[in-house]
Amino acid sequence: MPVITAPHAFNEGQLYVDLRPIFGRSLFLKCEGFNFAGSIKLKAAVEMVEAAEQDGLLSKDSVLIESSSGNLGVALSMIAASKGYRFLCVTDSRCNLSTRLLMEALGSEVHVIADLDANGGFLGARIDYVRALCASDQRYVWLSQYTNPGNWGAHYRRTAPEIARQFPRLDVLFVGAGTTGTLMGCARYFREWHRPVRIVAVDTVGSVAFGGAPGRRMIPGLGMSMRPPLLDESFVDEVIRVEEADTIRACHRLARRGFLFGGSTGTVVSGAMSWLAEHDERDLTAVAIAPDLGERYLDTIYQSTWLEDLYGDQVLDPKAKTAPEGLTTATRDAEPVPRTPDGRRKP
Ligand SMILES: Cc1ncc(COP(=O)(O)O)c(C=O)c1O
To answer: Is the C-beta atom of 179 inside 6 A of ligand 1?
Structure first.
C-alpha cells in the first residue's frame, strides 16, 4: 500500500494497455497519466526543480517561472504548492481551459499569450515574455524545459528503464516529440542498451521540430514552432508526422472502447499503427508512450462543435479514413537507420 506525504511521491510507471483488441495489432501503450499531475511532465518537473534546489538556485523568495502548453505547468504548480514556492506559468490561448483552471486551483499565476510568433506558433512569444520578466525581477527562476538537461535526464533515468525492465525484447519505441525531453532521454538510454531498439519520433503536421513547413496546430502537447534545442537527431531512427484529423480519429476510437486519452496519445497511436502496418513482416514488440489522459480535452478533442468548427463535420466519419488500417495519413521522413548489433549506427 503506497502511503505518501508529497503529491509527486506517487507515479504509476508500470501500466500498459495492449491495443490489439482495438486496432488489431499489438502495441503496448505505456500510460503516464496516473499521478497527481496527470501527465508524464511530472517526471521532468521533479527532476528540474530538485536540480535547481541542489544547485542553490531556489530560496523562499523565489518565483518559479516556465513557458508551458499546460502539462508541465500543472506539474510545476503541484510541486511548487507542495514545497512552498510561488509559480508563474506563461502559456498561450491553445492551453485547455481545464488545464489553466487546474494551475490556478493549485495556487499558481497564469499568463496567457494570444499573439502568434513569426513561425505561426506561440512559443517564441512565450519565451520572449518569460525573458522580459526574468530581466525585470531577479526573484524569477526560469527552469527552461527547452534547454534543461533534467528534462531528458528524467526519462533517461526513469521512463526508459521502466520500459526496458518490462520489455527485454523491445524492437521499436514510438515517442511523441514536444520539447523532445521524453524522446531524447529514451533514445539515449536505448542507444546504450544491450540490443538495438528502433526509435521512432512522432510529430504533428505543421510542427517545424524536424524541419518542414509550419502550419496550424490546435492540439497542445506535441509539435514545436522552433527546432527543439534538446533534439539530437543522430539518436532518432525515423520521424513520422500525423495530421491532427488522424489524431482525433485515434482518440475517439480509443474512447469508444473506454480508454479516454489525451491528444498526443492519439497522435502517437495513429502514427505507430500506420508504421506497424507497413512493417508487419514479423512479430515486433512495440511500445508507445501515452503522455496523459483525456479529461483535459473534453472541451476540445471530445467536443463535437470544436471538432466541426476546426476540422469539418466529416472528421469522425469512418469514410474519412485515408491510410492503411484507416488510421493515419502519417508521412515518414527517413528509412530505418542501419545499426550494428550493439545498437550503434553503421558508418
Ligand atoms: C500531453 C503531452 N504530450 C507530449 C508532450 C511532449 O513531451 P516532451 O516535451 O518530453 O517532448 C507533452 C509535453 O508537454 C505533453 O504535455
So the answer is: yes
Most confident of 119-133, 215-229, 238-252: 238-252
Question: Distance from the CA of 46 to the center of ligand 1, in angstroms?
Answer: 15
User: Residue 213 sits in a domain of what CATH number?
Assistant: 3.40.50.1100
Q: Find the helix packing angle between 263-278 and 244-255, rounded to 10°.
A: 100
Residue of minimum CA distance from atom 16 in ligand 1: 221
Query: Are residues 191 and 273 both part of a single domain?
Result: yes
Q: What is the mean pLDDT of residues 315-342?
A: 53
Mean pLDDT, residues 284-304: 95
177 lines ligand 1 (CB under 6 A): yes
Does 16 have pLDDT greater than 70?
A: yes
The whole domain housing 162 covers 7-31+155-332
Give 297 Cα–ligand 1 centroid separation in angstroms: 14
Query: Are 67 and 200 members of one domain?
Result: no
The reported pTM is: 0.91
Question: Is 69 within the bounds of a domain?
Answer: yes
pLDDT for the residue numbered 320: 65
In sign, the C-alpha dihedral spanning 151, 157, 160, 162 is negative
Q: Is there an atom of ligand 1 within 6 Å of 207 CB?
A: no
Query: Are 197 and 310 members of one domain?
Result: yes
Question: What separation in angstroms does the CA of 71 have from each of 34, 143, 221, 251, 296?
Answer: 13, 15, 8, 18, 10
pLDDT on residue 330 = 52
- Cβ(147)–Cβ(232) below 8 Å: no
Compute the distance between CA of residue 152 and CA of residue 48 in angstroms, rounded to an integer: 10
Q: Are residues 24 and 45 in the same domain?
A: no
Distance between Cα 222 and ligand 1 center (Å)? 6
Q: Judge contact between 288 and 174, C-beta under 8 A.
A: yes
